[in-house]
Amino acid sequence: MLDNRWVYHTTPFWSRTFNAHINVEFCNSVKSIKYICKYVNKGTDQATFGVEDLDEVTRYESSRYISSSEAVWRILCFPIHERFPPVMHLSVHLENGQRVYFTEDNAIHKIIIPQKNYTEGLFEPCRVDNFVKTLLYCEVPAYYVWKNNKFYRRKKGKAISGYLEIKKDQVLGRVYAVHPGNAECYYLRLLLHKIRGPTSFTALKIVAGVVQPSFQAACRALGLLEDDTHCNSTLEEASISESPNKIRELFAIILVFCQVGDPINLWEKHRDSLAEDVKKQFEAEQVNIDLFLDIIYNQCLVLLEDIVISMSGKALLQF
Hints:
- Helices cover about 40% and strands about 10% of the residues.
- Helix 6 crosses helix 7.
- Keywords: ATP-binding, Helicase, Hydrolase, Nucleotide-binding.
- This is ATP-dependent DNA helicase.
């Protein structure tokens, strides 16, 4: 038989106030809330660790093994190792972006008379020396030696036909690698391997008599970059089935990890699918979309930039 004993007690005040069946319990001990509050009685986190004294020198001495052939080689004083040909590491940096090492004593001197490096030192001889104008940046060390912040012609080496005063030595030039994430410096490095005898940073941007706005644009004009066909196809396929938020995430991944040749053109092609949800918000307010396109695209760029910053820590302007 069912009666009021089967009905849980309620508080009429709460039931009338919230128009719902509400039960209230009074917690009078820790046992009632220990699972709700994530084990409040366990205390702080603890870790067990040990300290080990790692002496790499002693370990090397105690475990080193010298074979009979190596022992005889060393007793007879034969050369152990050799590096040939010598390699000269060449720095690469954007204009006014070189590293400057200074101390408290010479800081003012470094500011007044900044020290030149290889990249800037290349431009000066290219203005006055006809032979160096025929060389790439990585080829210069074979014919010139770096001394007192300048490149000077080598006095020893093999004579070059047609240039009696030029000597070639067996020296290799290697330009430091640059991560594609450092976009402009990366494209500058590409240009230094393509353009012979540049006289300035601006000269590296000149293609067919036109000064390009950036090193990336210069590389694109010279045909050094691949096109973005695969990126364009990927976004077109995603726009068919994916939500605008997912498309923005995909666009951010392409920007950060795929070294897009022309990101602005890619944005202009797909900005409608990227901003589709933002457009719907304006349509819900019954406004003329054409009058607010700039605002819509700008809001989409803000959302896109948040994703890019979370992935790479860089703003959209850096791409």
